[in-house]
Each structure stands twice: as structure tokens, then as C-alpha cells.
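INTERNAL AUDIT FORM
Audit reference: QA-55
Scope: verify that the stored structure record matches its stored sequence.
Auditor: D.O.
Record contents follow.
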Amino acid sequence: MKRKIKICGITSLEDADNSLQFGADVLGFNLYSKSKRYIDLNASSNLIGQISIPFEKVFVFVNEDEGYVAECLKEVPDAIPQFHGEEDPVYCESFGRNYIKAIRVKKGIDLEDSFRKFYSASMILLDSYVKESYGGTGSSFDWDLIDGHLEKPFFLAGGLNFSNLGEALKKINPAGIDLNSGVELSPGIKDKTKLKDCIKFIRESDDR
């Protein structure tokens, strides 16, 4: 199985090009203004226009005004929205396109129910729950909470780095891996070596 590799928190052309050249499939641009990796619509659109390698584009939103989301998706029509807040299915479906829904995992969550609730999502993303934070925290969650029969493919996120990727792939075997803080020098600035090593490791695992 070839897993999708998503590099989130992209803010520069260098990081975008390195990610794609090393083998990533998806780049995430965080349009949530409170994020340490925030990039506005104009900057993200200009950056996307400079990238020559084909890739899947993801715009990350958190409890955003519908009008702003619609404006962003009009500006970059092939971008996939990722909703990383408390958005409900009606909201997520209102834009009439494929979407990714992030679920922040904590003790007591019923993931089977969450997956059924967002059955219309093209992918689910499982991330760590950190109060008042939405992604990119560098914290992993208890993977034992991923149990039962999950009916959709999902990205695994949350504090993934070279030291725990092997365990994650073996224990969870997700359809996709979302890397962010674990491949950074600082928020929004990727580490070329970490990017290369992590992507290479995931790609080699595809063949095992």
C-alpha cells in the first residue's frame, strides 16, 4: 500500500519544493490566523502558483466564517478544505466538494461514531487533542484509542517524527501520514534533513 504523505504548515517555496522532491503527495497551507504557521490567502495562492511539481493542495481552516472559506476555494479551485475545529457535517458539506475532517482524539472519544458522523468526508485526519490548540502541537496521542472498525481511510497526525514513525506504521497502519512539527526547525520552517529522512522511511515502508 502506498500511503499518502502530507506535509502541513508550508510557508515557503523551498519547503514546498523539498517536500515534493523527496516524495510527499500533499501540502497543507494553514489559513487559521491564530496558527504559528499561518499563511494568508494571497501569500498561499502566490506560493502555490510557483510550485512546478504536481501535488494535492489542502487549505486548513478552524471554525472559519463560511464566506471566507468560499473565497479561498474560489481563489484556488482545486484546493481541498481541511476542517480542523468543531465544524459539523452540514457545514463541511455546504461547500460542495471533497473535504478532510480532523478529529482531535482524547480519552473517551467514540471514533466509530465520529467516522459515521462524517461519512461524507473524503478522508479523516486523527490528531492530538490539546485544549485551545488546533494541530501542530508536537504532541502525540494514545494510539490505543484507535480501535474498532473505522470505515474510512484516515491520516495519522500528532507529534509524528523519525523516532516514532516506525511504531506508528506498524501499530496503526494508516492510509496517510501527516507531518508538521516533527520535521521542523521552528514553526513554519521545515528541516530539510528531517523531511528527507521521514519521507524516505515512509516510502520504504510502503513496500513492506
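Auditor finding: record pair retrieved intact. Residues 4-206 form a domain with the TIM Barrel fold (CATH 3.20.20.70).
Action required: none
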